[in-house]
């Protein structure tokens, strides 16, 4: 979009993650818009201050565990670094934006030094080298490769709704979950969001599309 500049055919920029939305704004890829529908349907804390992007769904990054093998599941992200969970944890690569975001959140909550110590503790507790996407972490629990994993909520919801060729109904029943840090800063949340492209050739229709994304019909897909 940046390379195409004014010749860009893009009307709507749609992506996951607040960082990506913020970067798009900083790069000048979006434009402010006015919409009474968006203002009415989307809380202010899920909007850009300048109305250049809006969130259309939220997801929590939570902990999943094997009910059979984990008698005392971790209650917080910090717990993942405890020695009692050695050789139990599956997680995505540090190059993944979800892993980077939860790490950045812990830096903000705990401080850089404590977050660094946490990361080292989690690495020490790996059941396997980081690999795959969020669904692969849940598959790791089902296969017995690991006992604890971190995933966005909707990946598990997708398995419940559509099933998975490698995860049986018994596997699903044996997977428990924890919304961590309920005694302090709570589970880490992120969004899917969108904004109108800076040089959108169909600006008004782009706004209408964003408004549609807040409708009951469209929200079913989120």
From TrEMBL:
<keyword id="KW-0732">Signal</keyword>
<dbReference type="Pfam" id="PF13343">
    <property type="entry name" value="SBP_bac_6"/>
</dbReference>
<protein>
    <submittedName>
        <fullName>Uncharacterized protein</fullName>
    </submittedName>
</protein>
């Amino acid at each position: 979009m940046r390379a195409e500049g004014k010749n860009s055919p893009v009307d709507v920029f749609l992506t996951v993650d607040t960082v990506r939305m913020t970067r798009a704004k900083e790069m000048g890829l979006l434009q402010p818009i006015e919409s009474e529908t968006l203002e009415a349907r989307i809380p202010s804390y899920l909007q850009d201050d300048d109305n250049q992007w809006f969130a259309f769904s939220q997801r929590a990054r939570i902990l999943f565990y094997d009910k059979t093998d984990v008698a005392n599941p971790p209650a917080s992200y910090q717990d993942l670094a405890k020695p009692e969970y050695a050789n139990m944890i599956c997680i995505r690569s540090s190059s993944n934006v979800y892993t980077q975001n939860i790490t950045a959140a812990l830096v903000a909550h705990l401080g850089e030094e404590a977050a660094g110590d946490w990361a080292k503790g989690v690495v020490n507790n790996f059941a396997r080298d980081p690999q795959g996407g969020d669904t692969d972490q849940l598959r790791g629990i089902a296969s017995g490769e690991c006992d604890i994993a971190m995933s966005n909520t909707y990946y598990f919801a997708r398995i419940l709704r559509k099933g998975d060729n490698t995860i049986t109904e018994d596997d699903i029943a044996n997977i428990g979950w924890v919304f961590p840090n309920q005694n302090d800063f709570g589970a880490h949340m992120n969004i899917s969001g969108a904004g109108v492209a800076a040089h959108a050739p169909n600006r008004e229709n782009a706004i209408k599309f964003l408004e549609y994304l807040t409708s009951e019909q469209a929200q079913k897909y989120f």
